[in-house]
Amino acid sequence: MTTATLIDGKRVAQDVQQQTAARVEKLKQAVGVTACLATVLVGEDPASAKYVAAKRRLCEKLGLASVFVKLDETTTTEQLVDKINELGRDANVHGILLQHPVPKQIDERAAFEAIPAQKDVDGVTFHSFGTMFYGLPGYESCTPGGIIRLLDAYDVDIRGKHAVVIGRSAILGKPMAGLLLNRDATVTVCHSRTVDLPELVKQADIVVAAVGKPAFVQGDWIKDGAVVIDAGFNPGPKGNIGDVDFEPASERAGLITPVPGGVGPMTLAVLVEQTSIAAARQAGVEI
Prior knowledge:
Blueprint: E1 5-6, H1 9-31, E2 36-42, H2 46-62, E3 65-71, H3 77-89, E4 95-98, H4 108-113, H5 126-134, H6 142-153, E5 162-166, H7 173-182, E6 186-190, H8 197-201, E7 206-209, E8 227-230, E9 234-236, E10 239-241, H9 246-250, E11 255-256, H10 264-283
Parallel strand pairs: 1-11, 2-3, 2-4, 5-6, 5-7, 7-8, 8-11
Antiparallel strand pairs: 9-10
Helix pairs in contact: 1-10, 2-10, 5-7, 6-7, 6-10
């Protein structure tokens, strides 16, 4: 029986989207600029194609322009970097997203680093990692940025709390730890080689599960009243499921995100929000 309060990511995402749509319209009225996101897809991965299509639909819904670049599965790193450089020089493009993963022959890091810092609205470059960790103006990795917005929307007091992040990927676990640190949390980052993981999770006031394993985090790992953020999205027999064993965890947690409908909607919302902000900055206006 669920006793935790569900964190409604769809509702919070809608609020962010409304603010973004208003910013996009103000920018058009102020200087005649339409915020534009360029998405780059390499290869034929169905899931990636689905995600890119969703991003383009959201742009259209909120009044942003979008550019879609589709490259062949055999594309080389040099060819991809050339295309990203071309988008970087295009004054009508304000944000660039390279859909990952890319085919194995491509140096993904080299491709990410070709994205100009001012157009890195997905928060994937070394520059963005630096600004995230130092709390400087820049663009956050979208999923961690979305999680922070969820915590704020539900008035979660992060300061001084013990947060356990399970996962250390460059686009989720590591930047998540940085953003939580910047909000004065005490952060423990766990991973596949962590010893006594359940005992560490039991100490957490805030748990962020980003390990990529279905129902990995067990309910009896959760401290009573903890905030549980499930950033997992794994295929299951009855649809997608998260990294947290939801039902038993929800009996102990105070707040918990469902899958789907929790973290996922926030990733897209932050992407378009940051694109609208990037467009305003590049136009030299405060909106």
